[in-house]
Structures are given as C-alpha cells and as structure tokens.
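Hi there, hope your week has been kind to you so far. Please have a think about how the structure follows from the sequence. I've dropped the whole record in just underneath, so have a look:

_____
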Amino acid sequence: MVLVTKSPASETTLSTPLLSAITTNNSSESDESPPNSNRFMFNDVKIRFAEIPTCGSYRSLAILSGHIGSVSCLALCGEFVLSASQGKDIIVWQQPDLRKFAKFGHGDGSVKALVAVGNKVFTAHQDSRIRVWKVSRSSENLFRLVSTLPTTKDYLGKFMKQSNYVQTRRNHKRLWIEHADSISCLAFYNGLIYSGSWDKTLKVWRVSDLKCLESIKAHDDAINGLVAEKGNVYSASADGKIKVWSNEGKTSHFLIRVLEGHKDVSLNSVIVCEDGKFVYAGGSDGYVMGWEEDEENGNWKLVCEVKAHNMAVLCLCFMGDFVCSGSADKSIGIWKREKSGGLCHVGFMNGHEGPVKCLQASLHSVGGGFLLYSGGLDRNLRVWWVPKEEHTVKKREENNNQIQKTQKKFVISY
C-alpha cells in the first residue's frame, strides 16, 4: 500500500515504504490561547506562524519548536519530514500541514545524522554508534529500536582475532567495525549505508543484514559530510578535501578523485547536483566552492568560488537549479545555479536566533516556489517559501493566495 498526498499546488508525491501503511492519528486540540493567537500546541510541540518582515519575495511560513536540544539534522521520507536534535529526540512531521506524527529517540549521544531507507530509519550518534529503527504497526510505539551498529553478531564474529583490532589512540585498540569517535554523517546508496566519523574513517554497512563490510582510512581529519550519487561516494573533511570513492567492478571501495578546497579551511558539507556533474562544498571560511566533471576525460575543474557568508557555511542543499546554504552567521543564502556551474546570488533569509545547522528542500510546490526547512542551534525548525522565478504582479498575487491557503491549512490542522 502506498499513500498519495496532494500538495498545495495539486502535485502528487508518493511516500516511501517507511510509513506507507500507517494510519495517522490526526486528532489534536489547541491550547487555551485566544482564537486570534498565532501559537498552537500539539502535545509538547509549539507551532508559531512567523510575523517576520519578508526578505524580498521569501516568506517564513512557520516556526516549529519542540526539540529538547539544537536541531542537528533533517531528512525527507515521502510525505514526512524527520528532524533530530542534540537532545537525542527525533520528531516526525507530516507534509504539507506539518502535523506532528511521532516522536522517538534513545541513546547516550546526541543525534548527528539520519537517513530513511525503506521501513527503517538509521540514526548516527555522538556516542559513535548507529541505531536502527523500524516502523511497528502493531505497537503504540511506531518507531521501535531494533538494532545498534555494530551488531552483537558482528562483534562475536570478530572479537577473538587480534588481526581485527586497529590502533585508535596510544595504547588503545578497537575492532575495525567500530567508530572511535562521533559519527557525523550518513548516506545511502544501492543497499549500502555509509557512515563518516570524526575518527577520520568511512565505514560501509550492508542494509540487508546490518553487517559492516569495510572501514576506510579516508581523511587526515574529521569527516563532516557524505553524499552518494551514481555509484560514487563523496566525503568532505576538515582536512579541506573532498574524496570520491567507488566500488565499481570491485568488492571494496577505492579512491578515484580528490577535490582540493582552500588551504587550512575545513569543508563542512557536500552536495552533488545533476546526476553527479556538479559537486559543491561549504567551507569554514564562508565560501561555497563548486567543481564540474568533464565526462570525456573524467577530470574535475573548479567552476565556482563565492564568498557566500560572513561566517562558516555549515550546510547545503539543492532543489533543481537552486542551491541553499546555511551558515553560522544565522542566515540562509539562496543561489541560482548557472549552466556553467557558477552560482548567482538571489537573496538571503534571516530569522534564526542561532547558527543554521541543517537544510532540506521539499518536493511540495507552493505558488510557483518550493518549501525549505531549516534547523538551527536555537532549537527551532523553520519553514520557508522560496520562489523559483520572478513573477508579474498578477502572478505574485496568485502566489500569495496559495501561500495564505497553505498557512490556513497549518492552522486548521491544529
């Protein structure tokens, strides 16, 4: 069974199997705020509809608060948005009305990254473990913890052999299947989960049996970002490099390319656009850099180098020809990607009271634009409307009507 939901612009989006067969409990009651109040309650979650001056054509549609700690990562899964925090809690929101669907969390470390795969959610934690959650339709606890990586079976199969241990620090050894520090990022491709850690290693896990297949000494410093596209895995590191890995034709991954950033500048995030043709990275010096692959000879060339923010770029995401950047300066930059791969500045969005840690663009179309979710160290999840192009006065009025309907739908839901 697959659910089909209608977006405000009457576009359809198919859910993944994660929650496809779950029947949502949409009943909720608002708090005792006056009827005209712009604040609504759903259990411990507050939604406040923003009364912030618009920044050019951009709109801040809603502010969602309810996380225990700073919002650290976001992920899309069909019609659902998953947000996680340093307070170990994960909230599942339903698009496009942003009802709170579920809340779960567990562990000794804050959540650093998450990815949804089929009917499972993988979460990476500061305590160097990966937790696997499965949707349980027969229980009130919709998201049930089913495993922790490495698994006990993996441990038992390797702990007896001394050759399975590696030196992590002076006089300290671990099994090669274990991360020795915080896991900062996750990626999924073709039945494999990739995890990057501050211990400088990249590990490969098989989704079917949760077994660790490889551990790669990938970088000279912490790995901050991962993305998988068309059989290649891209890892961004504090050593200022993006490394491209592949296992095409082989059983293990091997290095095929190194993209150099600015000297002594940490790369905090990486994205891949247009089927692997363009790669962009955000640096601690506020720059966004981009590379293009020459398909004829396989070489990469630098095509973009823009000073995007006054402080470090912490996260990147894209939607079509648009690239969005979140920064420690609390702002979100919007950039239009040119055919050459260069980035043309479109505008900024402000509103977060802390650094913007994560971004995620939604496939739901609203009034000729798209929805953008941003999570910050201010513990808030914000929802923005980003126009895809400039419109005439008449078209802007039509867009405004659709945006207002979207906001009203938020209100009705609560």
Notes: Confidence is low (pLDDT under 50) at residues 1-56, 391-396, 410-414.
